[in-house]
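We both want to read discrete structure tokens more fluently, so let's practise on a single case. Would you write everything just below, so we can both look at the same thing?
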Amino acid sequence: MQQLTILNTRDVKRLRELVEKQFGYFPQEDYAYFKGENEKISIVSKDIVQVDFKKLIVDKIGLYFAEDMGSEIRLSKEGAQLLGREAFAKGEELCNVVDLSEEELRTYFQGQELKRDLGAEKKLVLLRYGGDIIGCAKYKEGMILNFMPKQHRGEVIV
């Protein structure tokens, strides 16, 4: 059973810097951030921090927000949507956002990669259809790699 660790101020600051560098925005709400042994980061309301987690065996808590990949943070589908919803509500602009056509959206939800020329630089991008952020993906060598979890894939989406 894995043990969750509450991220300290220095770790949250690093997380904030990486997400802001990648996407231009970081959630302003006052969340507590937890990291599991698999480098997955979850967020919860700060009220939960009053619980003594040393006396509990907790496998998962809160919303799965992102995965710490060392030099970059890959947002989960839900984390990307949270970031987008909060940024758009505050009138903030996100960077590294790729707008998808209906055909590209269908292709992505079928689990396939997308051919797109976004430059030579490898980077993480947020995928948007209409006004909605649908997830986070890796761009490299002219391809947007599909990170859509299998349980979210499907044929009928639009």
